[in-house]
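Today's session is about reading a structure prediction critically. Students often jump straight to the picture, but the first step is always the sequence itself: look for stretches that repeat, for charged clusters, for runs of hydrophobic residues. Only then move on to the predicted structure, which in these notes is written as discrete structure tokens rather than atom positions. Here is the chain we will use throughout the hour.
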Amino acid sequence: MQRRQWLTLAAGLVGSTASKLACAARDELKTVPFGRNPWLQPLRGYVDGLDRVAEGLGEGLRVRGRLPAGLAGTLFRNGPGLLERGGKRYAHWFDGDGLLQAWRFEGDGRVTHQARFVQTRKFRAEQEAGEFLVPAFGTRIDARLPVRGPDDMNTANTSVTMQAGRLYALWEGGSATELDPQTLRTLGPRAWAPELAGVPFSAHPKREPDGTLWNFGTFAGKLVLYQIGADGTLQRSQVLALPGAPMVHDFVVTERFLVFLLPPLSLDFASLRDAGSSFAGAMRFDATQSTRVLVIDKPTLQPRRQFELPAQLLFHFGNGWDRGDQIVLDYVSTDAQEFLSGDFNSMLGGERDLSRSVPRMQFLQLDLASGRTRQHERPEGLEFPQVDPRVVARRHRYLYSPAMGAASTHSTPERWGFSAVQRLDLRREHIERFDFGPYAVVEEQLLVPKPGSSQEGQGWLIGTGFDVRAQRSFAVVFDAEAISAGPLARVDLPYWVPYGFHGHFHPA
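Below is the predicted structure for this chain, in token form.
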């Protein structure tokens, strides 16, 4: 019943939106030329390299330093790789078609790079037509194809994971898309059970140390929960009522609970139906309301307790853990006005970045017995927090992230992104950091445990970035216990790839 409700709602909104006039210029497809800001060139996407990317890349890589002998596996990365078609450009960064990358570390000092677009049904149809055909999250587009449900709009562009040897590109609002992990060839949408076909499977699953994968999806006022075994089979699912929560991007898992933070966001349905707004353009943030915290028991998959926090918007969690009646978790806060006003996407013009907010790490304690909460933040600007995969849902000491370095200030209008990599030691309240300097943009960094190690933090920190002066992308490998010493190795590509969102490392 819930799936049918979602499909009906999605099709109804798309059909009505397609027949209305534009409501706001920020939602419209852009036709202006892309600017010359060197920091922003990867945001163009692959406007003129489709054939080259489809065949795979990998020649001409340059390794500086020495790759660790024990580093063997693949760093998969995903993000919006196609933002323009037919001379038109999306109005929102989140709308681009997914480009999946594979950085393959062979364990003997060799590394290769491959990238292919995820061949969703949307991508294939628009590729053949040479133009955008279906509505998007943040861009108003008149539907020129039937939209029967969310997978007709699925861009598979947000994250990537592997479970039981199967590779999946993930999106916010639709099915996981399976790909061949060796060739990156698209195999198609994954249905975890017949009754869950087409039901959203979010881009931020959590994998516990025993291999259990937890995830969720939201649709039509509902929250669907997934528990997937290490063997890749669905163990349990549950659908709960979740009114008034149009955007839930991430969540956190502890040993006994699932925890969701629900910002005070609502959808202006009149704007969707009557004014032709995009989904993002119809979101409304009410700062007078609370951000709700929903705690769900793992054994029953039923709500245990709700809390209220001051109104705030967030995208990404670091980790969470529980002890007795206490739950402790951390996440990054985001400026709601900047995101919803359209300023967030100012960089898509290619001229300069107008953003002025600084995302900061928040630390939250929940007392299930008393209902009390405690919260504090740190001053450093950062995003995409990660922990050692061996401590997911357990008490953790370290948080790893790209961060604002000396060059990552808002005093330079054309500057964009983070320039440093850091490790935050929660026990000592100490930061160890390496700054790449004023001409680098650093993306998400993942902790890869060293073979044979057992202690948290014993591993390599692996991530990607962009060299602004050379206009080339790169991957870096740090010793996670000596970040300030600089990278052990850096692998430079002979080209740039679009900025991405999230990745997953799969050991060989």
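Discussion point for the tutorial: The CA atoms of residues 237 and 384 lie 27 Å apart.
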